[in-house]
Amino acid sequence: MEEIHTDMSDTADIMKGTTYTISELAKEFDITPRAIRFYEDQGLISPSRKGRRRVYRERDRVRLKLVLRGKRLGFALSEVKEMFDLYDTAPGETAQLRFLLGKIKDRREMLEQQRQDIEAVLHEMESVEKRAVTVLEEMGEG
DNA sequence: ATTCTAACA
DNA sequence: TGTTAGCA
């Protein structure tokens, strides 16, 4: 899945002004550079440039990590972006957290509904299966 | 060797 | 998002 590099503290990386190339981040998070550029196109990350080349700093790395976490939780990139925009607009504001809670609620409800749907199908399968077995047994006797 | 943009799948 | 082409 995903492993995290915890050598020096992140704060140390920040004060040192550590930067990363797109390939380094891709390797760290086990994704392709293409995916990282895609997230940028979607407005989720905005690395600075050195000429044409993207220069990723700790802030970008953190955002990328959050994007991937959002994906794991089943959120759309657009939803992760909404959260980022809220944070950028009102840092330290409760709006972002309320938004997140709302998203979690929606996501959870969707998953629970899916769970119910799955259970319904499973039960139906069981019913059909029993019926089929019964028919075979009757044929065996007759 | 690596990254980038753009376009198509 | 993956892939590929043509650059720098």
Automatic annotation (TrEMBL):
UniProt keyword annotation of DNA-binding present: yes
GO molecular function: DNA binding; DNA-binding transcription factor activity
Lineage top rank: taxon: Bacteria
Coiled coil spans: 101-131
UniProt entry keywords in alphabetical sequence: Coiled coil, DNA-binding
Signal peptide region: none
Pfam families (UniProt xref): MerR_1 (PF13411)
TM stretches of this protein: none
Domain HTH merR-type residues, every copy: 19-86
Family matches, as Gene3D superfamilies: 1.10.1660.10
SUPFAM superfamilies in the record: Putative DNA-binding domain
Protein name as catalogued: MerR family DNA-binding transcriptional regulator
InterPro entries: DNA-bd_dom_put_sf, MerR-type_HTH_dom, MerR_fam
Presence of the UniProt keyword Coiled coil in the record: yes
